[in-house]
Amino acid sequence: MSLTIACQPRPEGSKPRALRREGLIPANLYGHQGAESVLLVVNAKDADTLMRKTAVNKTVIDVTIPEINWQGPVLVREAQTHPWKGTIYHLSFFAVDQAG
What is the pTM of this model? Predict the structure, then answer.
């Protein structure tokens, strides 16, 4: 079973709290092009479902970003959650080397 999630680039000048109100979770993708990172948003329901099925730093998932034509395997490096609500606040993805 392969886990996948679709992301979109984060709108320029958007605030994280406003994104969360719209049902989107801010995220970052690191390591896909060296030191460059990409600011992303993920659907909150998709992120919640994904985090129920994955383990941070252990499960490789496939991320698709159609707007920048990038797709590849990543690890969820960090998942920030609200202290007592348990809702996801932010996700950090780290690209995995496809060769090995």
Answer: 0.89
